[in-house]
Amino acid sequence: MGFFGGPGPPGAGGGEPLDRAREACAGAMLDEDPERALEVIRAAVARGANPEDVVSRVVLPSVDMVQRALRGGAGDALARQLAAARVASAATSELVGRLRPSPARARLILGSARGDRHELGRKVVVACLRARLLEVTDLGADVPPEAFVDAARERGAEVIGISSMMAETARGQAGCRGVRRLLEERALSGRIRIIVGGAPFRADPGLWRVVGADGWAQDARAAAPEVERLAAEVRGPAPALLSPGRW
């Protein structure tokens, strides 16, 4: 039977059923109904869908659909994006126990630059990254350069993410420039990358290079692949597998 019409055969949950689940989940997120969204996600697994498929084909695309629908919106658009990202983060956390064990795709230290107390945009990014199984430590707002670097060393993070919503904090010495200086002083530039984001970087797409970052993300949706790319630079290529008989 169909996905919402009753139990299907063992292993049901691929193809069309997951398409329907994705549409239903995104609709619930847009309606600001997190419980209904979580029910859709749980039902997909209960009816036989692979948890990894539910994450990659239902949960994450639903967040992308919501973000596209609300992009450029006024008023509560950002808050609604945050609510959708939190649902995705909660659902992914719930499904992690059912997933095949694997190392984090990247470890990130994230915070708003010193002097910047904006919270909402950064929280959207945190929730989206966690939903994509990235290990994120959120230091909060008004974070000094030393705190970013110390936390990255303590947690073995490959990437530091710095959010700035004001030109002063984006360009100032207490933001990315200060973090870069400390990484160079402590000989850590080869082990830790910096990603930046926020309104000043959207207004001036070349600003990230000026302040010494290694990359930037226009929004929460673009942040995950860029963080993974930077982490992969630090980790280097995976070791080659030996051919049979070559030890």
Structure description:
This protein has 247 residues and is of the alpha/beta class. α4 runs parallel beside α5 (120-131). 53% of the residues lie in helices and 9% in strands. It has helices at residues 16-30, 34-46, 51-70, 77-96, 120-131, 145-155, 167-171, 176-185, 199-203, 207-210, 220-235, and strands at residues 107-112, 135-138, 159-163, 193-197, 215-216. It starts with 15 loop residues before the first helix and ends in a 12-residue tail after the last helix. The chain has a 5-stranded parallel sheet with strand order 2-1-3-4-5, with helices on both faces. It has 2 domains: 16-96, Methyltransferase, Methionine Synthase (B12-binding Domains), Chain A, domain 1 (Orthogonal Bundle), CATH 1.10.1240; 107-235, Rossmann fold. α5 links the parallel β1 and β2 (135-138).
Note the main attributes of this structure.
247 residues, alpha/beta, Methyltransferase, Methionine Synthase (B12-binding Domains), Chain A, domain 1, 5-stranded parallel beta sheet, 11 helices, 5 strands, globular, disordered N terminus, disordered C terminus
